[in-house]
Amino acid sequence: MPTLLEYNVRKADNAYWAFAIHDGHHISPALEGYYQLNEEQRLREEDPHTGCMVELPCNQFIVHTSRFQLDINRKLEEAIYRSPDMAWGLQVYKELPPASLLQQLSDDYHSIYTQIDQWIEETIAQHGYFIAFDVHSYNAKRQAPDEIVDEVSNPQINLGTLYNDEKWRPVIDQFMASITANQVLDQNIDIRENVKFKGGQLAQHLLQKYGDKGCVLSVEFRKDFMDEWTGVPFMPVVQAYKQLLMHALKDLQNMLPYGSTR
């Protein structure tokens, strides 16, 4: 049976990867009839425009399927939102899809992780290491559209680094320095490590298998680049965040020994 997961991969001749695994909004026609949530409700918890942000001069992996169909940033047993406690209190389905479709989603999960492993192994074989930008976004106005954001508890950029080997500390520090050396709309940038998020299943999986050979930077942008309740983007901020990643990528590529093929 063909995969229900839609994604796009672009390969580049360098050791860097940019992932946007929650960018997607698409639901397979085979599953649409089982959903109770409408598109607007789904969009609120997805990470729209992160796919645009990772269109960088490096390897790219962008998922077009909604996390409400299959969330590959969670363990398999949590990747299908079967109950409200798995989905921010939301009742996702009118009724669960049949066992055959659930099995297909499980197969898709295993297949995509096998494929990602293959890509990373190829990158390591060619360059000796890999560095991944795992790009996400998060809501900071949980109660109401006019809520005042608690900026103490909700950094503008949360950088998840917890699961990286300490040997990659210079890479993490360089990424942080590159971001803070820039501004967004003439404002300094608040980037902090592991405040809201520490790195999801993708980061944990890659670092458990390949942590001696690579670093995963899980970048969570607070949804300042859009109205998180309506989904309307603020494109100058989207583009500014993309430029931040572009600058960080360039600065990391200039580092030694990790910035060149070895």
UniProtKB/TrEMBL annotation:
This is N-formylglutamate amidohydrolase. GO terms for molecular function: N-formylglutamate deformylase activity. InterPro entries: N-FG_amidohydro. It holds the Pfam family FGase. It is an enzyme of class 3 (hydrolase). It comes from Sphingobacterium bambusae. Keywords: Hydrolase. Gene3D superfamilies: Zn-dependent exopeptidases. Its EC number is 3.5.1.68.
